[in-house]
Amino acid sequence: MTVSISLYRFVTEKVRPPRALWVPFPLGYPLGAPDDPALQRRVILAALDLLTADEALPLIRDFQP
């Protein structure tokens, strides 16, 4: 199974990976701000949650910080 974390939604829509989590963070920070382990954990868990999603593939979900 594949899950990606995406910084550019328009690229993800073109590539169409099976499961993607779009994050609204700056380029180079796919897990959010440095030294914020709580936020980074939330991003990782949200991405892994896509593995059990019951939605049609390809699936792009927006992360809500």
Structure, briefly:
This protein has helices at residues 9-15, 37-49, and strands at residues 4-6, 19-22, 59-62.
What labels would you give this structure?
2 helices, single chain, three-stranded parallel sheet, 3 strands, alpha/beta, globular, 65 residues
Total domains = 1
- Which percent bin holds the helix content? 25-40%
Count of distinct strands: 3
Count of individual helical segments: 2
Query: Strand content of the residues, in percent?
Result: 15-25%
The main pleated sheet reads as:
3 strands, parallel
Q: Structural class per helix/strand content?
A: alpha/beta
- The helix/strand series, from N terminus to C terminus, equals EHEHE
Distance between the termini: 25 Å
Strand order of the largest sheet: 1-2-3
Give the radius of gyration: 11 Å
Average of the residue pLDDT scores:
97
Outline type: globular
Report low-confidence residues grouped into runs of 5 or more. none
Secondary structure topology:
Elements: E1 4-6, H1 9-15, E2 19-22, H2 37-49, E3 59-62
Parallel strand pairs: 1-2, 2-3
Please characterize this protein's 3D structure.
The protein has 65 residues and is an alpha/beta fold. The chain has helices spanning 9-15, 37-49, and strands at 4-6, 19-22, 59-62. It has one domain. It is built from 2 helices and 3 strands; from the N terminus they run E-H-E-H-E. Strand 2, helix 2 (37-49) and strand 3 form a beta-alpha-beta unit.
